[in-house]
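Write out this protein's structure.
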Amino acid sequence: YFVAVGMIQQTLGWFLEDRYALGEEQTILFTGIAFACLAVMMVVVQFGYVQPRKPDPRGMLPTGLFLIAIGYVLANVLMPFWAVCIAFLIVGSGAALAVPAANALGSLSVERHEQASAAALLAAAPPAGFIFGPLIGATMYQFAAPLPLYSSAFVMAILGVYAVMVVARRPVS
């Protein structure tokens, strides 16, 4: 998950710059707006849905992963910048579901005496992903600008299928 996210965080600015023939200042602005859309939606979904309703993380995880995959594909296929912003709103809603669900399920999948180890592993995942994701994304971008978004969407879809077939069927302790 975090390798795929790191690929996008590394390459989105280049993607927007190339797609819209932006200058340096415009690239910074457009990239910031796209990521702000993602972040705003994460906050809205977290505080407007996840916190008050406390949904089952086994359902949240695949839903979130599929939303992220859809958002990444839409960012590639939709041309107007406002549509890319909508795509990143979708990505943000998916991330707001997937990340807390993965953390909850990681914690719930171990015994009490294993909680610290599980928490350490879950805390190490984002930095590890951000070591490799940007390197992979930058390499892919050199071959084709849409490749990081499509590859990340593919990873999210595969994780979503795994979450439906395996994780969602496991009992939560």
